[in-house]
């Protein structure tokens, strides 16, 4: 899976073109992403208390940041437009 995270320098350069911007507090954002049935099986783990499967995406997975960023980009599609665009 390939989904490049935006570079901070690119974001700062593009800010000149926007009329306004806001920051979204997504402290528990990864927990909003449901795991697919296949992903739950792949990320299952066993400990002394038993066998467990994640129902929501934990922060530590390799592709979690890319999946989360893509979800945010899709959710904000249409709201992010430069001046005159």
TrEMBL record:
<keyword id="KW-0472">Membrane</keyword>
<dbReference type="InterPro" id="IPR043128">
    <property type="entry name" value="Rev_trsase/Diguanyl_cyclase"/>
</dbReference>
<keyword id="KW-1133">Transmembrane helix</keyword>
<feature type="transmembrane region" description="Helical">
    <location>
        <begin position="17"/>
        <end position="34"/>
    </location>
</feature>
<feature type="domain" description="Reverse transcriptase">
    <location>
        <begin position="10"/>
        <end position="76"/>
    </location>
</feature>
<dbReference type="InterPro" id="IPR000477">
    <property type="entry name" value="RT_dom"/>
</dbReference>
<keyword id="KW-0812">Transmembrane</keyword>
<dbReference type="InterPro" id="IPR043502">
    <property type="entry name" value="DNA/RNA_pol_sf"/>
</dbReference>
<protein>
    <recommendedName>
        <fullName>Reverse transcriptase domain-containing protein</fullName>
    </recommendedName>
</protein>
<dbReference type="InterPro" id="IPR051320">
    <property type="entry name" value="Viral_Replic_Matur_Polypro"/>
</dbReference>
<dbReference type="Pfam" id="PF00078">
    <property type="entry name" value="RVT_1"/>
</dbReference>
